[in-house]
Amino acid sequence: MIDTHCHLEMSPFDGETDAVVQRAHDAGVHKMITIGSSPQSIENAVALAGRYPSVYAAIGIHPHDARLFTPAIYRQIKDLSSNEKVVAIGETGLDYHYKHSPVDIQREVFIRHIALAKETNLPVVIHSREASDDVVSIIKGEGVSSGVLHCFSGDEKMAEAVMASGLYISISGTVTFKNAAALRAVVNTIPDDYLLVETDAPYLAPTPNRGKRNEPAYVTLTARAVADLRGVSYEDIDRITTLNANRLFGLEPARPANGQITYKIRNSLYLNITNRCTNVCTFCVRYQTDFVKGHNLRLSREPSDAEIIESIGTNAAIFDEVVFCGYGEPLMRLDTVINVSRYIKTHGGRVRINTNGLGCLIHKRNILLELSGLVDVISISLNAQDASTYQRLSHPPFEGAYEAVLKFIAGAKDCIPEVTATVVDAPGVDVEKCRQIAAALGAMFRLRHLDVVG
Ligand code: SF4
User: For every residue of the chain, which 3-state class applies, written as one string?
Assistant: First the structure.
């Protein structure tokens, strides 16, 4: 876990940083970024980063102090930015709530920070309070493409605008506050690839420590709240946000070297046995990223049956289910699915297959009979309410693909105990019609949201 925004250099931590950093480590927070945000605190932040291997620094002038920004401070930030532990420029931005500095000066200083971030090739840490429109306008106008909007308090529209520029959204302990329903709704909409967590310590301690001095160890409370909101595990949020923070701030290791054969989400074990697929779906995540929930799924080669079984181990029964999924169509490798499913069942596991429903066309026979007795659950991508929409969204290589999917769903219930037809809410999909089609075929129905994977 990484606390991407704290202020260890501030006076509430004077004389206590050894203990605070140790408590963070004990809680599983292995890295933290301390944000020097005033003319006095910049040097202190860099000094702290030098003292603790797990502490990194960002340096800039908070919009409150924008009026104090001088050419000398600009040079100071620029000189310090070459320190190897300095990983970002900021925090900078706009704060129209307090207006401790005139807004025109805030804007000018924000733009100077952005220019410096580009010049030094560092991401920019952005503060925005009651200034959403101007912050978004400056981000777009100045072409900011690397950075984070810290302690996010905006609405979904702002989140979308910021992410469209390639920036991350960082969630603080405010998400745990009783009156933060609007923020919690936005947190649910942020794709994994854009999510970070932070404390903003010593401020904004999450519940149940609200009102006390915050510290990096408490970022775990925020991460747990985010995990609950998004219906995943704490470990999932830890993995996702750690990958994102490593990637944004250039911390090591930024990227697992090889695609994984097995990967865990919540308490299910997923199997990534192929990256091949017959279809080219417009919404397919594998065209956007190598990662799902922080796991690298880009295989350098297809694993053998023995390698898959070794990766599963002997504890298949401890998982809620073992799922053939990954970055491709598992039924391209029917024999492997059968062999590995047999192994999982022998070890007390529950088997699910996520499939595009074209297995019978791929193998030119009714393969459902071969899965009978081995597979407990099958999720089949219905994708559309009619053949032309299916063709436009999924680009199958077969004639009659949509009809084959319908037949596969209808036939599955005779061989597999639990059958679900799934749909992604992509443009042009009539979800209600799809729901009715699934019911008519005797299948359950599940709506998946665009950009939410795993
Ligand atoms: S069927 Fe699944 S794996 Fe294949 S392209 Fe479509 S979304 Fe991607």
Answer: CEEEEECCCCHHHCCCHHHHHHHHHHCCCCEEEEEECCCCHHHHHHHHHHHCCCEEEEECCCHHHHHHCCHHHHHHHHHHCCCCCEEEEEEEEEECCCCCCCHHHHHHHHHHHHHHHHHHCCCEEEEEECCHHHHHHHHHHCCCCCEEECCCCCCHHHHHHHHHCCCEEEECHHHHCCCCHHHHHHHCCCCHHHEEECCCECCCCCCCCCCCCCCHHHHHHHHHHHHHHHCCCHHHHHHHHHHHHHHHHCCCCCCCCCCCCEEEECCEEEECCCCCCCCCCCCCHHHCCCEECCEECCCCCCCCHHHHHHHHCCCHHHCCCEEECCCCCHHHHHHHHHHHHHHHHHCCCCEEEEECCCHHHHHCCCCHHHHCCCCCEEEEECCCCCHHHHHHHHCCCCCCHHHHHHHHHHHHCCCCCEEEEEEECCCCCCHHHHHHHHHHCCCEEEEECCCCCC
pLDDT computed for residue 451 by the predictor: 63
Q: Indicate if ligand 1 lies below 6 Å from the C-beta of 376.
A: no
- Is 328 a pocket residue for ligand 1 (Cβ < 6 Å)? yes
CA 277 / ligand 1 centre spacing (Å): 6
> Whose Cα sits closest to atom 8 in ligand 1?
284
Q: Nearest C-alpha to atom 6 of ligand 1 is from which residue?
A: 281
What is the rounded average pLDDT for all residues in the chain?
A: 96
Express each pLDDT in 119-138 by its tens digit: 999 999 999 999 999 999 99
CATH numbers and ranges of domains, the chain: 2-249 (3.20.20.140), 262-448 (3.20.20.70)
